[in-house]
């Protein structure tokens, strides 16, 4: 029986170790007990754990989407040298064991505390270790009462172990993982604390809470910085999903893994920024997530001495503790086969296996085994320390009798091709690989039931450069809590001019009129932090037709200049995206589905825009193609064909010129247009206009104070029942001087199942905009469902609204009749066949996420349309912005009804 079957290796341990070499092969290598003469005196640190097995006798899966996942049974160890004979010293048990707090089993033997350790990092001088550690579970405690992940430090010179944050209350205020030393001695780490975001929520009038990541499964863990003593904790990244695994590059920038989930899961890519959060940009991987038919992500990155990045490239979830590591040339590539613009002749691939070519994580059994950790040595030898589990299988020819041990064999092509071959348990050990001799040597002997999952070498290495503030820092903006975005041209898509006749023609008002410019305005959209159910219990119906958009706020609007340039002052320390709009305030470009951020005083320049399916370099300034907008051709003269009062400096975009002369460029609550560029001596000046919330005849989605004077804390929040439905209920009846009704264009007077006298009617255009509870979803009003979801056509039958039925037709257009189980026609009392009747489907009047795609609705209000002039421009603009951000039912969690 399986319960009585035990495991043994077919080879003795000593012999098996002498046979293992690089690339997972089984050819003779150097002896396992020969210490490496160069690295033997360098201490190494590693995480050693009990192989985690679940109730189904399977290895516990690790999930990248759960940075605070707790797998008890780990400890941090140190060896004085990278040698198999060097003694392993546990340096973390002491945090949970002392004379007054020791545990023993029933036989009085000491029991190791069941805690977890991960994310080990070494200081640049090699004397200290920084890591995340989570205390054992508290028996019978609720989830919110269990310990959290904390940042700890071990000093090799003094043998001291300390938690960085001394206060228990402060330490337990968030899940802290992924620590790394900054060059100035501070510590960067990932945390669910979201300190700055919580402070902004208070300023916005909301409750203070940590937000969920965008799949709403766990709290978002983003980057923070603190002093070496745990004080002055500051949030520096504002993604709405996880920012994890920070790594300090030689130039002082922070490379990290960002989970991009805005409007849907796009994977975990590599991003970079400065330690203060400025100059955020993608580095690598947006279009490189397909590997051997698997969807993979880039995590646990380290830097090689040559400047390449080592990353674990793996699926979200694995039950092998490890996978495979790749060397990635991020200097010359933005994706696996996409070089930076300055090296456009390169073809890739940018990523190459870092160790063995025969590791295949897609296969049921990887021929090259699995690598859980990889650490390059900085001694110029090219050698790498790694934690590796060799490929092993059970002997398929062995007949196992009850009580007999099973034989384990090293993998071979023949064995792996055997039907029903079964993988043996994982067996991780620590190794060192030498590329010069293509051999590997054991550093910590593999043990059954034990796994080594992380390791570092405690050798000194060069300090990275200190970050220095950008020359474009603007102190006045910083004092106002603002940053600035400068886009050279929205018509620049990955280095290509998308205008019909060229940017010089588009930018010249004497050649291209205002009405001929397709992109006129820009909308700044902010993500709404979603609380957990203990704060607000949100239902699926509270979001839009697609939950991908979650909830969105609008920060404000700005102007796109004739050359496509934009300059906007935007609130700092918020996640935002930009929408580009036509003259009616409708988004006409694809949505920008990546969160941007600015720190106070930052001035960020972008060349142009990008389309989601375009793989050309974008969002990384040093990798992009040159801007198509060369700016003003001279200093002291206006841009060609423009108002001479707006004199330019050489190379300035029109947005730069406008801001330099007219002052700052904050976003505004209203869409405002003034034709400042037309030269009145040669060109007709277009009429100014404003789409102002002050022109609304129902409730406005912004506070009255913000509608009059915009501040960085102003937000436009459009809820359907509060701001869209009331537009349809505004009384639009007009009367003559005698008080007689002339016309009534109130929306619900016609788009309702009852007329003014209470008589049943078919809603005009089969569109019911009434504020009654929907029969399709009791959480919605009828108008919301009718606008955004397909419906069935109705007709009045004997004073009652019923679904209209018509005869069903076959593929040839012939009627279909009812038949019995034998296929014979069923006849009515007059002996006639009975036609099969079907309902008539009516399409949705609007398209969520796209006002420009909702022409069935908006066309009625345009010149020549049946409803022309019935809604004013402010009302149409409010409906358009609501659609563009996702057509949510609510865009504020605290406006939703609660039981």
Brief rundown of the structure:
The chain is mainly β and 899 residues long. The chain contains 13 helices and 51 strands.
What topology does this entry show?
Layout: E1 6-9, H1 13-19, E2 44-50, E3 62-63, E4 74-79, E5 88-90, E6 116-122, E7 128-134, E8 149-155, E9 160-163, H2 168-171, E10 176-181, E11 187-191, H3 195-203, E12 222-226, E13 234-235, E14 243-248, E15 254-260, E16 267-273, E17 281-284, E18 290-291, E19 294-295, E20 297-303, E21 309-314, E22 317-318, E23 325-328, E24 333-335, E25 338-339, E26 351-353, E27 370-376, E28 384-389, E29 392-394, E30 405-410, H4 413-416, E31 428-434, E32 439-444, E33 450-457, H5 475-479, E34 482-487, E35 492-493, E36 496-497, H6 503-507, E37 521-527, E38 552-559, E39 566-571, E40 576-581, E41 603-606, H7 654-662, E42 671-673, E43 689-691, H8 704-708, H9 720-729, E44 733-735, E45 741-744, H10 747-750, H11 782-788, E46 791-792, E47 794-797, E48 800-803, E49 805-807, E50 837-839, E51 841-842, H12 855-858, H13 873-884
Parallel strand pairs: 1-30, 34-41
Antiparallel strand pairs: 2-4, 2-33, 3-22, 4-5, 6-7, 7-8, 8-9, 10-11, 11-12, 12-13, 14-15, 15-16, 16-17, 18-19, 20-21, 21-23, 23-26, 24-25, 27-28, 28-31, 29-30, 31-32, 34-39, 35-36, 37-38, 37-40, 42-43, 44-45, 46-51, 47-48, 49-50
Helix pairs in contact: 9-13
């Amino acid at each position: 029986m399986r319960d009585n079957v035990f495991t043994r290796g077919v080879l003795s341990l000593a012999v098996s170790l002498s046979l293992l070499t690089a690339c997972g092969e089984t050819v003779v290598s150097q002896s396992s007990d020969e210490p490496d003469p160069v690295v033997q005196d360098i201490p190494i640190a590693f995480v050693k754990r009990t192989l985690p097995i679940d109730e189904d006798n399977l290895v516990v899966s690790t999930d990248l989407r759960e940075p605070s996942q707790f797998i008890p049974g780990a400890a941090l160890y140190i060896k004085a040298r990278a040698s198999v004979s060097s003694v392993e010293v546990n340096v973390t048990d002491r945090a949970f064991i002392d004379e007054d707090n020791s545990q023993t089993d029933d036989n009085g033997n000491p029991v190791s505390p069941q805690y977890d350790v991960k994310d080990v990092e070494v200081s640049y001088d090699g004397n200290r270790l920084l890591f995340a550690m989570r205390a054992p579970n508290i028996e019978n405690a609720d989830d919110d009462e269990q310990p959290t992940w904390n940042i700890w430090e071990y000093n090799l010179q003094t043998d001291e172990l300390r938690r960085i944050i001394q206060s228990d209350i402060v330490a337990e205020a968030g899940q802290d993982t992924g620590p790394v030393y900054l060059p100035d001695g501070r510590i960067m780490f990932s945390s669910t604390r979201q300190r700055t975001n919580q402070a902004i929520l208070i300023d916005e009038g909301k409750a203070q809470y940590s937000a969920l990541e965008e799949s709403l499964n766990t709290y978002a863990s983003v980057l923070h910085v603190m002093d070496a003593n745990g004080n002055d904790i500051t949030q520096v990244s504002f993604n709405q999903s996880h920012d994890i695994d920070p790594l300090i590059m030689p130039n002082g920038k922070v490379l990290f893994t960002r989970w991009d989930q805005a409007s849907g899961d796009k994977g975990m890519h590599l991003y970079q920024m400065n330690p203060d959060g400025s100059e955020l940009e993608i580095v690598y991987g947006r279009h490189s997530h397909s590997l051997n038919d698997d969807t993979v992500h880039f995590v646990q990155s380290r830097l090689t001495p040559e400047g390449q990045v080592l990353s674990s490239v793996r699926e979200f979830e694995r039950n092998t503790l490890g996978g495979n590591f790749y060397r990635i040339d991020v200097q010359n590539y933005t994706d696996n086969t996409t070089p930076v613009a300055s090296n456009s002749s390169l073809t890739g691939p940018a990523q190459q296996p870092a160790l063995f070519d025969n590791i295949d994580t897609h296969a049921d059994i990887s021929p090259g085994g699995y690598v859980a950790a990889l650490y390059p040595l900085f001694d110029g030898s090219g050698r790498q320390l790694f934690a590796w589990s060799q490929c092993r299988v059970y002997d398929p020819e062995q007949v196992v009798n009850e009580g007999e041990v099973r034989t384990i064999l090293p993998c071979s092509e023949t064995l792996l091709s055997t039907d029903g071959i079964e993988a043996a348990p994982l067996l991780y050990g620590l190794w060192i690989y030498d590329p010069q001799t293509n051999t590997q040597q054991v550093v910590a002997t593999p043990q059954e039931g034990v796994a080594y999952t992380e390791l570092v070498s405690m050798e000194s290495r060069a300090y990275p450069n200190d970050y220095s503030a950008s020359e474009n820092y603007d102190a006045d903006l910083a004092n106002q809590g603002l940053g600035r975005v400068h886009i050279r041209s929205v018509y620049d898509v990955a280095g290509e001019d998308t205008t019909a006749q060229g940017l010089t023609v588009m930018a010249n008002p004497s050649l291209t009129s205002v009405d001929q410019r397709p992109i006129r305005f820009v909308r700044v959209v902010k993500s709404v932090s979603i609380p957990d159910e203990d704060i607000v219990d949100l239902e699926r119906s509270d979001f839009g037709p697609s939950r991908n958009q979650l909830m969105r706020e609008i920060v404000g609007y700005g102007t796109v200049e004739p050359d496509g340039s934009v300059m906007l002052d935007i609130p700092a320390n918020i996640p935002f995206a930009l929408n580009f709009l036509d003259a009616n305030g409708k988004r006409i470009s694809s949505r920008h589905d990546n969160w941007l951020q600015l720190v106070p005083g930052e001035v960020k320049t972008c060349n142009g825009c990008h389309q989601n399916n375009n793989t050309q370099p974008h969002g990384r300034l040093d990798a992009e193609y040159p801007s198509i907008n060369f700016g003003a051709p001279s200093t002291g003269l206006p841009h060609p064909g423009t108002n001479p009062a707006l004199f330019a400096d050489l190379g300035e975009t029109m947005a730069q010129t406008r801001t330099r002369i007219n002052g700052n460029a904050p976003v505004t609550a209203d869409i405002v247009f003034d034709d400042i560029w037309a030269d009145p001596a040669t060109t007709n000046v277009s009429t100014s206009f404003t789409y102002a919330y002050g022109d609304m005849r129902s409730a406005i989605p912004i506070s009255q104070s913000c509608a009059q004077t915009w501040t960085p804390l102003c937000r436009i929040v459009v809820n359907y029942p509060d701001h869209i439905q009331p537009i349809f209920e505004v009384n639009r009846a007009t009367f003559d001087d005698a008080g007689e009704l002339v016309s009534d264009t109130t929306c619900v007077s016609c788009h309702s199942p009852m007329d003014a006298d209470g008589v049943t009617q078919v809603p005009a255009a089969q569109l019911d905009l009434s504020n009654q509870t929907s029969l399709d979803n009791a959480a919605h009003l009828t108008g919301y469902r009718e606008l955004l979801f397909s419906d069935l056509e109705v007709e009045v039958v004997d004073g009652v609204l019923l679904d209209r039925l018509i005869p069903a037709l076959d593929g040839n257009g012939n009627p279909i009749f009812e038949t019995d189980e034998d296929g014979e026609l069923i006849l009515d009392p007059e002996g006639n066949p009975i036609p099969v009747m079907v309902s008539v489907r009516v399409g949705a009047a609007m398209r969520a996420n796209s006002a420009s795609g909702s022409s069935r609705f908006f066309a009625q209000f345009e010149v020549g349309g049946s409803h022309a002039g019935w809604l004013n421009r402010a009302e149409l603009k409010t409906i358009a912005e609501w659609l563009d951000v996702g057509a949510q039912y609510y865009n504020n969690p605290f406006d939703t009804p609660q039981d």
